Every structure is written in structure tokens, then in C-alpha cells.
UniProtKB/TrEMBL annotation:
Originating organism: Arenibacter algicola
Highest taxon, organism lineage: Bacteria
Alphabetized UniProt keyword annotations: Membrane, Transmembrane, Transmembrane helix
Keyword Membrane in annotation: yes
Record InterPro entries: NAD(P)-bd_dom_sf
Transmembrane segments: 12-31
Name of the featured protein: Nucleoside-diphosphate sugar epimerase
């Protein structure tokens, strides 16, 4: 694990998807982190509260290029994602899961943002016969082509936690995984479900430290969080 300080003072971060489960945890962590003086949110709807550090931009995320003059920060955290159940239209699904992260990465590159983090998924593969995995894999490749110096792609397994919206299939899967987690050990540990707080905490640490891996799988995300969750500063 290659680590080194890139500790920046008075940083600004951009979050895409702060109204989501993982994005919500990430937002609270950054608001409580004194290294960050401004958090810019780009989303379709308001998070519903104010804070001295917050700067909300209510925008059409499918047309992110129109807002590139305000897309300025030290780091970008992309927590955008949908499901087939929530977005059954294939074209719209691709616009969200592929289009938004890739547009954000391209703007980040143009604007000189040097750290870009995106939540993908375990199983992401541009050659996959499964459309969900294929789109995620294509997104990863397109993001990497942008050449942002510090790019990290997190590939979590099923994300736990309670959502405000009801996703019956996902809820059933989570109940099943709660039982299955006990037998997923050793090389199978990466298939265990993972809490959104763990993903968010790992993202904050990665943003403030050098790390050798670009694609980071679920078990590795957990190890990062467990190793550094009690430290507020870089190692």
C-alpha cells in the first residue's frame, strides 16, 4: 500500500449524488472535516438544509457541461447511480450511469481538478454480457481515458443501509446477504455487502493520501476504512 501525504489546506470538494445513501454519509464527513472549507453540490434536488460550507447548484445533471464554469474544486466525488428497476429505459439508464460520471471527469480534466473519485460496481466489465456490468465497465474506461492524475474507482459489492425510497428487490438481497456474509471468508470476502459509511470514509481517506491502486474492490475499501477510520488527518 503506497502512501504519502498530499495534505492540502482549505480545500474545496464537489459531490455529485449527495442526496443518495453513500453521498449523504460523504457529505456529513466532509462538513465535519476541517481540511475542507467549501463543499459544492451538483444535484437535481436540494438536500434540505444549509451549512456555512455548503454551496448548492440545482442543475440538470444530464447536461453537466452547461455548468462547467462553476465546476471548480480540488476533488470531485461522484456517487451517482441508478438501477434497472428505478430506470427501466435503457437509454436513460446509460445517460445516468455512464453519461454523468464521464461528463464530470471530462470537465474535471478541463478545469485542472487533480483528484476524481467515482463509485462503480463489483463485476464492472466493458465486455460483459450483463448490461449493468458492461455499462459500469465502459464508464470506468472512459473516466480513465480523461487522464486525471489521482483517479480512484471504487467497486463495492451490494451496498447496505436503509434508503428512503423502497426497492423491494434490493431489500430482499440485503436480507439474504446479512446471512451470507458470515460464510464469505478469505478470497470470498470481497463479495460481502458493504455499508455506505465505509465507502464514504474510504473516499475521504483516498482523497487525502496517495494510493497505488486505481480500481479498488469491496474488501480493499473495507480495509482502508478500518485502518484509518480513527484518524482525521493523513498518515
Amino acid at each position: 500500500m503506497g502512501k504519502g501525504q498530499i495534505k492540502l489546506k482549505e480545500k474545496t470538494a464537489i459531490i455529485l449524488g449527495a442526496t443518495g445513501l453513500t453521498g449523504g454519509f460523504l457529505l456529513q464527513m466532509l462538513l465535519n472535516d476541517e481540511r475542507y472549507i467549501k463543499i459544492r453540490l451538483f444535484s437535481r434536488s436540494s438536500i434540505g438544509f444549509s451549512h456555512p460550507k455548503l454551496e448548492e447548484h440545482l442543475v440538470d445533471l444530464l447536461n453537466l457541461e452547461s455548468y462547467k464554469t462553476n465546476f471548480l474544486a480540488d476533488e470531485v466525488f461522484c456517487c451517482i447511480g441508478t438501477t434497472k428497476a428505478k430506470t427501466p429505459d435503457t437509454e436513460m439508464y446509460r445517460k445516468i450511469d455512464f453519461g454523468i460520471p464521464v461528463s464530470a471527469a471530462k470537465i474535471s480534466r478541463i478545469n485542472g481538478i487533480e483528484t476524481f473519485m467515482v463509485i462503480s460496481s463489483m463485476g464492472a466489465n466493458s465486455k460483459s454480457g450483463v448490461s449493468y456490468n458492461r455499462i459500469k465497465g465502459e464508464m470506468e474506461e472512459a473516466v480513465l481515458k480523461c487522464g486525471i492524475p489521482n483517479t480512484y474507482i471504487l467497486q463495492p459489492s451490494l451496498i447496505g443501509g436503509k434508503r428512503e425510497e423502497k426497492r423491494i428487490g434490493e431489500w430482499l438481497a440485503k436480507q439474504f446477504m446479512k446471512v451470507l456474509n458470515f460464510v464469505l471468508v478469505g478470497p470470498l470476502e470481497k463479495y460481502r455487502s458493504i455499508d455506505p459509511e465505509v465507502i464514504a470514509g474510504s473516499m475521504v481517506w483516498l482523497a487525502n493520501n496517495n494510493y497505488d491502486s486505481v480500481r479498488i474492490q469491496s474488501d480493499e475499501i473495507k480495509r482502508i476504512y478500518e485502518s484509518h477510520s480513527n484518524t482525521s488527518e493523513t498518515d
